[in-house]
Specification:
By secondary structure, this protein is an alpha/beta fold. It has a domain at 59-146: 3-Layer(aba) Sandwich (Undecaprenyl pyrophosphate synthetase). It contains 9 helices and 6 strands, in the order H-E-H-H-H-E-H-E-H-E-H-H-E-E-H. Helix 6 links the parallel strand 3 (106-111) and strand 4 (138-146). The mean pLDDT is 96. It binds 3-methylbut-3-enyl trihydrogen diphosphate (IPE) (2 copies) and magnesium ion (MG). One 3-methylbut-3-enyl trihydrogen diphosphate (IPE) binds at residues 26-31, 71, 75, 86, 197, 222.
Length: 249
């Protein structure tokens, strides 16, 4: 029954207006665990299946870019034991999933200050990115130690340096230049932002890039998020009218 329902939803998706880039704020792992009287870490562990289904769901539809907010610059302020568990989970997941990424022709990338992650994570990420670098079906980007403000500060520093070195004049600073200095310089802006677990905020994610993204917020907690939820989000997106500030007749 579930299967049939999933198929129905998928068939409603129009391939001509598919979002090219979907970004997700994967939220609600802690609440999911709490609901069953378990530790927060239990929620993080159960989030992996949601990541798998979302990545697979996007790839099979033909979405070119999927960006997942996995760890924010503010998440360091959580209890050390939770941060540690998240980092370990990152290492073990990358280790176990890289083969599947390759099988599905998915390239792994990161945005964020990965130099601030534990060495074991950096190593695992570097290996997985190297192994998947020629895959062409979809780019799966993990935002790790990422913050929109961090990214903009980094871009501002680079521009200040270029100006100090006499490479550019103030009037040459443009949207294009700023874009080119962001961690996302090689991808289009997200067409669709999904946030799970009902919170109505951006939480320092892709501040510049979300300027004209359609926002879809669901009460589903991230560990419960399945392909059918992804399909629902895309169908809702396809019913929107994207105006980009213009008046449409
Ligand atoms: C999202 O779930 C995972 C990360 C931010 C790493 P949370 O851990 O934020 O779960 P809630 O929001 O407390 O339920
Ligand atoms: C946003 O979720 C960060 C990630 C999903 C990695 P948070 O749970 O950290 O955000 P707030 O605290 O609810 O804003
Ligand atoms: Mg949260």
């Amino acid at each position: 029954m579930d299967e049939i329902f999933t198929m129905d939803l998928k068939e409603q998706i129009k391939t001509e207006i598919l979002p090219q880039h979907i970004a997700v704020i994967m939220d609600g792992n802690g609440r999911w665990a709490k609901k069953q009287g378990a530790m927060r870490v239990f929620g993080h562990r159960n989030a992996i299946q949601s990541v798998r289904e979302t990545a697979e769901g996007c790839a099979e539809l033909g979405v070119k870019f999927l960006t997942l907010y996995a760890f924010s610059t503010e998440n360091w302020n959580r209890p050390a034991i939770e941060v540690e568990a998240l980092m370990q989970l990152l290492v073990s997941t990358i280790r176990s999933e890289t083969k599947t990424l390759t099988k599905n022709n998915i390239r792994l990338a990161t945005i964020g200050d990965t130099s601030g992650l534990p060495k074991s994570c950096q190593k695992e990420l570097a290996e997985a990115m190297e192994e998947t670098k020629d895959n062409t079906r979809m780019t799966l980007t993990l935002a790790l130690n990422y913050g929109g403000r961090w990214e903009l500060v980094e871009a501002a520093k680079r521009i200040a340096q270029m100006a100090a070195d006499g490479q550019i004049k103030p009037e040459q600073v443009s949207e294009q230049l700023i874009n080119s200095l962001l961690a996302t310089h090689d991808m289009p802006d997200p067409d669709l932002l999904i946030r799970t677990s009902g919170e109505l905020r951006i939480s320092n994610f892709l501040l510049w890039q979300l300027a004209y993204s359609e926002i879809y917020i669901t009460d589903v907690l991230w560990p419960d998020f399945r392909k059918k939820d992804l399909h629902e989000a895309i169908i809702a997106y396809q019913q929107r009218e994207r105006r980009f500030g213009k008046v449409l007749s």
